[in-house]
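Encode chain A's predicted structure.
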Amino acid sequence: MAEKMGVNVEVWPLAADEAGIWLVSGGEAWSYGPVMADSDVHYEIELLLFRHDIDPDDAVFVAMPPDAPRAAVIHSTSWRPDSQAIMLTYMAVVRTAGYVVETWPDAAPVTSALPAAVGKAPPHGAAEVPMPRVVDVLLHGLRHLKFLAGPDGDAETAAALDGNWLQHLAPLRPALATMFSERLAG
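Encoded structure for chain A:
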């Protein structure tokens, strides 16, 4: 008998300073799963942040030091098949004072050159499941944050993003219109 499909979660912890946007985890998302039925997906994301010394800005986590980096935005941006589970993806915008690498020396820069450097996502048929690369998931999440910060987005998210975020998100362009412009061979 086949098992039921589970739910896994991942969070991309990102911070911005005057130098750029940084992936504070160093190069990949933090993940957890499967999420237990008596838990909550958002709560598990908050726990992932807490386990990495980021205050998810929730009263439940009173043990955090007052100067701990805080999550200003926690937002779900996508889902995808992940082995025998569904992966729910979240972006976490983390506030920190000064330069990001002072707090996270292993943080990886996410520059505006990244989309051109990695190229387009692999194409798929119109009725086929897309299989994004990890970098496609990150870029989609960043574009999602840019949309939320825009005039047709979400006022609370826009207010939580400071000038550094807005400056570094500005070069990102919507990709869906041209992401799959080539036909599959065959």
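The mean pLDDT is 88.
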